[in-house]
């Protein structure tokens, strides 16, 4: 069941998708009796891609196979996708790379369909992993299993999350093929290309229809305070606890999800994103006079744990937190475009009001 607070993600017809995917499953399994159950959707997290949960059965008697599966669909152009490009083959490739070169647990991808002939959009199918995820809607800082776990367990989970970034940073960039993760934007370093890519993303989002003062001022501030750059590593891109599934009975990560923002960048890009994404929810909680989780994912704790795990001291983490806040502001602007498209909100003259953390961002760049 979906949460009634969640924004609409797609206008794709689930009945049509079910019929087409049912036929496709027969083809990829080679079994005419292959079937799939009705769809369910994960609630409480994510909105950039359509995710469908279902059971599938094929074969007969002792050869019968039953699996719980997940289909990850690229969004349609008419549904105002959050990002300009959805390279699902690259998502599959980065998950395979991570699986091969680290101990990070990622879902097993069974099939990928790069064409639009089946569902109208590319998609891939992977095995379901059972576990629990700290939700985005409503945010985990307001309550739930992680909030109720207490500070000791929260900090234990925090360390396990930092370890994921630590493991990613140890993948030897020049050993496996990581060229597919490189941004095509102009720049003579990985960070400059990453930054240029985000400026291009902002221009794509606003399409000359508006200007966000807080985002444009933040870009100027970031350029004027350019940091000393660390080594380039494999970057998850959307490194946050809402993209990690944890064991139902422990704090152990059982699946690391959502690799669509992966690339090459200094490790501080992921560390800053993980720190900021908690601050984003914490700021919302405090604005509504809830306590939230103020001792969780602090800059000092996250960076010191990373140093303990790797021997590497992150540099200029404040800059990277502000960079993360700027990047997330662009995403929030695009998400508001989607909400307007689905009739759930509207633009006002104060365009920055669509960015929930704008006051926080202004306070860091003035």
Protein described:
The chain is an alpha+beta fold and 366 residues long. It folds into two domains: 14-127, 2-Layer Sandwich (Phosphorylase Kinase, domain 1); 140-365, Aminoglycoside phosphotransferase (APH), C-terminal lobe (Aminoglycoside 3'-phosphotransferase, Chain: A, domain 2), CATH 3.90.1200.10. 40% of the residues lie in helices and 12% in strands. The protein contains ten helices and nine strands. The chain has helices at 14-29, 88-101, 145-148, 151-169, 190-206, 213-224, 268-287, 299-310, 317-341, 358-365, and strands at 35-36, 50-58, 65-73, 109-113, 123-127, 232-235, 244-246, 253-256, 263-266. The strands form three sheets. A five-stranded antiparallel sheet has the order 1-2-3-5-4, sandwiched between helices. The protein has a two-stranded antiparallel sheet with strand order 6-9. A two-stranded antiparallel sheet has the order 7-8. Helix 5 runs parallel beside helix 9 (317-341) and helix 7 (268-287) packs across helix 9 (317-341). Residues 1-5 have low confidence and may be disordered.
Q: Secondary-structure blueprint of this entry?
A:
Elements: H1 14-29, E1 35-36, E2 50-58, E3 65-73, H2 88-101, E4 109-113, E5 123-127, H3 145-148, H4 151-169, H5 190-206, H6 213-224, E6 232-235, E7 244-246, E8 253-256, E9 263-266, H7 268-287, H8 299-310, H9 317-341, H10 358-365
Antiparallel strand pairs: 1-2, 2-3, 3-5, 4-5, 6-9, 7-8
Helix pairs in contact: 4-8, 5-9, 6-9, 6-10, 7-9, 9-10
